[in-house]
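#onboarding

Welcome to the new folks! Below is a worked example of what a typical request in this channel looks like: someone posts a single protein sequence, and someone else replies with the predicted structure as tokens. Don't worry about understanding the tokens yet, we'll cover that in week two.

Example request:
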Amino acid sequence: MTSSSKRIVVAINPHASFGRGREVGPAVVTTLRALGHDVTSLIEPDFLQLLEAAREAVRTKPDALVVVGGDGMVNLGVLALEGSRVPLGLVPSGTGNDMARGLGIPVGDTEAAIAHLVAALDRPPRVIDAGSIGFDLLDVPADSVEVGRGGRGRSRFACILSAGFDALVNERANRMTRPRGRSRYTIALLIELATLRPIDYTLTLDGVVHHEKALLVAVANNLSFGGGMKVAPDAQLDDGLFDVVLVRPLGRLAFLRIYPRVFAGTHVTDPRVVVHRAAAVRVEADGVVAYADGERIAPLPVDISMDAGGLRVVA
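Example response:
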């Protein structure tokens, strides 16, 4: 090891055993070792075992935890690093890769992403926000969540928590194996569009209660989800506030007209799209499951709080 070498833990997506993504993890490990860094590679058969291994590794206080994969792996890193000052590095190789987009990390070019990581390792980490989630344990498998104070489930996220039509699309897209990439979300959206209906929500934003009928609710720390859909184009990763985006009831044709604008972020100029800003958010509705960073969290209600400056990133 040289004087500039670092001790780095690399956690590799356990499901990246096929397609282009399977070569990315080994390439990251090989490159970092060739540069003289002391690298520990974590490969486990499933998400929960990899999360526990990452937490154990973080307790040894490495110079960075690098995750290789998509936004689900970012979520693993955010969970593993709770309460730690160890920074999170990312080499995107997943389907959505929205956290990488928000951080300015190259997407779709493994060599460029690794070069970005290597260069950023020599700089002080960037400090950004994270979100904390509390929820009831009813209807949530006990072995898939952590239990916090008062016996409630708890989790964290870095990108966006979704609870509505967007979550239904996410749930369907995650069950699909083809096609790869952003088109999978588009197909899932079109399928769910056939049963489009508004949902009755109760939202509590920094203590103020709002009753809303809406198709979509997104609590955003990052600007995009679903592979580049800029649902919250003005969201900032380090401003201490969530952008809470609501899409009020629309017919199917109107929804189809506004949908393409999400990729440019121009949908927010439509009067039926409402954006609030808050640091504490409670979302309540019947029959809706919340997703965060593309991972299934729990049925509503959920309580979301801002952990300002709660995450350091290598970017």
